[in-house]
């Protein structure tokens, strides 16, 4: 897949790791569906998700702050629970975890995690999906945004960009963005990390899962953006 355009939220600021941390990515060509590549629903502003909903995170990031994912680099996932805003805020008022004055838990983010089983996303998972089952359909409820150190013991839940908060913004950008000029698309190459995957023993099974959000045939993909201040 080749990239045509990046649409950054107009109010994003590098001074905050949390606020308006979202971007749309337009591809040159529509994604081709298969048995393991298919769209996930985008919630609107009225979509409600309760802590009882089944939710999952996934990614190819580090296993912990000091441990990298090893070959053949399988996509990992974990079941997590949503945490309400009031409870979430208390986790970031302890000596172990703190956030700056710019990083207050606001309406455009949500929290989820599993502190009991020490499940968390880590470095390299930023922008990955938080998906939940609603009425028998999978919805991308959040995008991995920020967390404390992913070293055991994990003291705080993960913070996600709240997709439903940006529902109107997503619809506006979809409507106002022209279709990509496919004639300008560069030749695609197989990523070096994907070459040779078929050479592993038959005992290793790779299980592709949803990791982005397909919005339309216009091929707009939703991801959160992670900009580090150097």
TrEMBL record:
Query: Gene3D superfamilies, per this entry?
Result: Trypsin-like serine proteases
Tell me if tRNA-binding is a UniProt keyword of this record: no
Enumerate the SUPFAM superfamilies for this protein: Trypsin-like serine proteases
Q: Name one Pfam family in it.
A: Trypsin
Keyword terms: Disulfide bond, Hydrolase, Protease
Biological process annotations from GO: proteolysis
Keyword set includes Disulfide bond: yes
- Entry-linked PROSITE patterns: TRYPSIN_DOM
One GO MF annotation is: serine-type endopeptidase activity
UniProt cross-references to InterPro entries, sorted A to Z: Peptidase_S1_PA (IPR009003), Peptidase_S1_PA_chymotrypsin (IPR043504), Trypsin_dom (IPR001254)
Residues of the Peptidase S1 domain = 1-175
UniProt record similarity statement: Belongs to the peptidase S1 family. CLIP subfamily.
Q: What's the protein here called?
A: Inactive serine protease 39 isoform X3
Query: Gene that codes for this?
Result: LOC110297631
């Amino acid at each position: 897949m080749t990239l045509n355009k990046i649409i950054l939220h107009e109010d994003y600021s590098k001074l905050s790791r949390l606020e308006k941390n979202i971007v749309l990515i337009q591809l040159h060509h529509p994604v081709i569906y298969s048995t393991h590549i298919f769209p996930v629903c985008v919630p609107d502003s009225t979509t409600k998700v309760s802590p009882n909903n089944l939710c999952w995170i996934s990614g190819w990031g580090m296993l912990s702050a000091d441990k990298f994912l090893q070959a053949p680099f399988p996509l990992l996932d974990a079941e997590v629970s949503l945490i309400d805003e009031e409870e979430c805020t208390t986790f970031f008022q302890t000596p172990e975890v703190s956030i700056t004055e710019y990083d207050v838990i606001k309406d455009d983010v949500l929290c989820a995690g599993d502190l009991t089983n020490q499940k968390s996303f880590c470095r390299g998972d930023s922008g990955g999906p938080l998906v939940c089952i609603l009425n028998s359909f999978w919805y991308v409820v959040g995008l991995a945004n920020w967390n404390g150190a992913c070293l055991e013991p994990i003291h705080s839940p993960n913070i996600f960009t709240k997709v439903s908060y940006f529902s109107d913004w997503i619809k506006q950008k979809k409507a106002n963005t022209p279709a990509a000029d496919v004639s300008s698309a560069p030749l695609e190459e197989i990523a070096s990390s994907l070459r040779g995957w078929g050479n592993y023993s038959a005992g290793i099974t790779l299980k592709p899962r949803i990791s982005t959000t397909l919005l339309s045939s216009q091929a707009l993909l939703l991801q959160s953006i992670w900009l580090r201040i150097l």
